[in-house]
């Protein structure tokens, strides 16, 4: 494990994983660009995530807009609630996130209010880390980037602070696409934007970042999962909100003991563990921490963070929450659109309910030919639509106000075949950039004595799978090496040809970017058609027939051990 990330970040910049954005102009805090190897690694991570959610679990994928109207974010709560507390130095005017200034004194400082934070500055002698000056008043700072949609300022919009809202507002379309059935699983990956006050810790806190979002709509009365039995005996490391101690427990026991709220949430907590370990997160440096009672969103039934141990300390990289019906209820309220699921009963049920009943004898003489249409419109209304003894309806575009002379609210018995319910949402939300950095740091192996660095990336995510080298770029060795490169290189098996420098230096270059295998063509290759295949992690070398290189590499990529290739 890297005690600090300076060596790793040096490699990332030099070898084209990540670069500071706008470096020509001094850079911008909290912004990074992905270089060629970084793009490949990031895309490979996304494909592994897709293989689980879109492949194994059968979820559908969408891609929604990154700019949205104010109304949508008003409904989601971001306009009113999506803010952090900010304070400025009275001397140098440097801005700081207020709760971060006192984090060493409080277990959970983000629950402190403005006055409590100001008192904490005084109590603990907290001053500006830049100049030592006194800190000013604490105020709210909304983290969304504001813009206008279209010319002028007619319609206010925001860059989305999360990708989730694009899924929620598309629920009617998705529900129809899924033939009006639950559960309904939806995934989306893309950019989100948060105007962080003082982003630090590199890629852990960025102003423009990537998410891999999962939203699973379920029946609120059925939070089971058909495949739960497959993982219920698997062990997971949890930090419940009843204490700081990490416990190892089976997934099934965690649900039975009420530590995790329900089976479907527990299933996707463990699915998150499977994903992260498959990507290369060290399971010994991975835990799942339950949100504290005062930390949990008011609408959440339960929420867990997947935390990785990094050089920064324990860091959230994925959140898995049972969000209840908050999101759909809010968007239904603000948009005026019903966002529900019709839950059909096994057998019809007789229920007693209040209904609006038309008084036909009064309607006929008063409205004559319109009486039938008015009666139908009235009886489609809910008793809650009656205000001050009056009911307003619309018939053929005409607004008609009716008094209790023409209707009554009465208890009636009816047989119903089902009921409408607001689906609940299970949300595993993955921070792609944080996972990207975690995979790099957990795979980073540096020998200070030899000044030798290796990225022990999992083959599935490694940006380059195989390096192909001629021992010398002459005597036909280069021609044979390029021929092998052409045969093995594909979208699945990214290859890299390198003919410069000593073989040792070429191995070192490949080790430094995480390439799991290398093929070397030497003079024996011209005689017997075999080449040397080297394993990155063991430095073991075997001779293989060059014509079988693609087949053997494919088996290794599928998970076969180097010692099992049978050559």
Key descriptive features of the protein:
single chain; 567 residues; alpha+beta; BirA Bifunctional Protein, domain 2; Herpes Virus-1; five-stranded mixed sheet; 30% strand
Describe the structure in your own words:
- With 567 residues, this protein is an alpha+beta fold.
- Helices cover 29% and strands 30% of the residues.
- It contains 17 helices and 28 strands.
- α11 crosses α12.
- The protein is globular, with a radius of gyration of 30 Å.
- 34% of the residues are buried.
Distance between the termini: 34 Å
Quote the average pLDDT. 94
The major β-sheet equals:
9 strands, mixed
- As a whole number of angstroms, the C-alpha radius of gyration is 30 Å
Specify the structural class: alpha+beta
Assembly type of the chains comes to: single chain
CATH topology heading of the largest domain:
BirA Bifunctional Protein, domain 2
> What's the overall geometry?
globular
Provide the CATH top-level class of the largest domain. Alpha Beta
Strand order of the largest sheet: 3-10-11-21-16-15-14-12-13
Q: At CATH's second level, what is the architecture of the largest domain?
A: 2-Layer Sandwich
Quantity of strands, as a count: 28
Portion of residues in beta strands equals: 25-35%
Low-confidence stretches: none
Which percent range fits the helix content?
25-40%
Number of domains: 4
Task: Give the count of helical stretches.
Answer: 17
CATH superfamily of the largest domain: Bira Bifunctional Protein, Domain 2
């Amino acid at each position: 494990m890297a005690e600090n990330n300076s060596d790793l970040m040096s490699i990332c910049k030099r070898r084209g994983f990540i670069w500071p954005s706008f470096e020509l102009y001094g850079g911008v805090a909290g912004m990074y660009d992905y270089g060629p190897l970084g793009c490949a690694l990031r895309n490979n991570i996304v494909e592994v995530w897709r293989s689980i959610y879109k492949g194994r679990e059968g979820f559908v994928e969408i891609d929604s807009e990154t700019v949205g109207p104010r109304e949508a974010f008003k409904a989601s709560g971001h306009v009113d609630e999506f803010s952090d507390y900010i304070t400025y130095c009275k001397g140098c005017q440097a801005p700081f996130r207020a709760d971060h200034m006192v984090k060493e004194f409080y277990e959970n400082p983000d629950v402190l209010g403005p006055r409590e934070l100001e008192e904490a500055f005084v109590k603990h002698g907290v001053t500006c880390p830049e100049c030592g000056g006194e800190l000013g008043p604490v105020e709210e700072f909304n983290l969304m980037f504001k813009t206008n949609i279209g010319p002028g300022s007619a319609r206010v919009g925001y860059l989305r602070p999360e990708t989730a809202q694009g899924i929620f507002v598309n629920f009617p379309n998705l529900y129809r696409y899924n033939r009006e059935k639950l559960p309904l699983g939806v995934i989306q990956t893309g950019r989100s934007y948060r105007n962080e006050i003082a982003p630090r810790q590199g890629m852990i806190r960025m102003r423009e970042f990537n998410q891999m979002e999962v939203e699973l709509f379920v029946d609120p009365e059925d939070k089971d999962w058909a495949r739960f039995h497959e993982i219920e005996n698997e062990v997971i490391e949890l930090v419940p909100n009843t204490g700081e101690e990490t416990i190892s427990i089976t997934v099934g026991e965690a649900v039975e003991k009420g530590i995790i709220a329900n089976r479907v949430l527990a299933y996707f907590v463990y699915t998150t563990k499977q994903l992260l370990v498959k990507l290369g997160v060290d399971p010994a440096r991975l835990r799942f921490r339950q949100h504290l009672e005062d930390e949990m969103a008011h609408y959440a039934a339960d929420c867990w963070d997947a935390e990785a141990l990094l050089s920064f300390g324990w860091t959230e990289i994925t959140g898995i929450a049972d969000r209840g019906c908050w999101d759909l209820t809010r968007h239904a309220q603000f948009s005026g659109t019903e966002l529900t699921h019709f839950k059909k009963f096994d057998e019809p049920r007789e229920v007693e309910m209040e209904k609006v009943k038309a008084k036909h004898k009064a309607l006929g003489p008063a409205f004559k030919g319109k009486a039938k249409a008015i009666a139908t419109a009235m009886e489609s209304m809910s008793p809650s639509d009656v205000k001050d003894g009056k009911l307003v309806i619309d018939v053929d575009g005409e607004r008609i106000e009716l008094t209790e002379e023409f209707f009554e609210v009465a208890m009636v018995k009816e047989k119903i075949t089902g009921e409408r319910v607001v689906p609940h949402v299970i949300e595993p939300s993955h921070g792609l950039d944080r996972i990207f950095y975690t995979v790099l740091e957990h795979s980073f192996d540096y020998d200070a004595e030899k000044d030798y660095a290796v990225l022990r990336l999992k083959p599935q995510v490694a940006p380059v799978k195989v390096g192909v080298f001629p021992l010398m770029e002459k005597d036909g060795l280069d021609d044979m090496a390029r021929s092998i490169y052409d045969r093995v290189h594909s979208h699945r098996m990214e290859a890299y040809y390198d003919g410069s420098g000593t073989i040792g230096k070429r191995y070192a270059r490949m080790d430094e970017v995480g390439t799991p295998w290398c093929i070397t063509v030497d003079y024996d290759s011209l005689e017997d058609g075999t080449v040397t295949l080297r394993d990155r992690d063991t430095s073991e070398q075997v001779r293989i027939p060059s014509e079988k290189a693609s087949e053997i590499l494919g088996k290794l990529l599928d998970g076969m051990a180097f010692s099992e290739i049978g050559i």
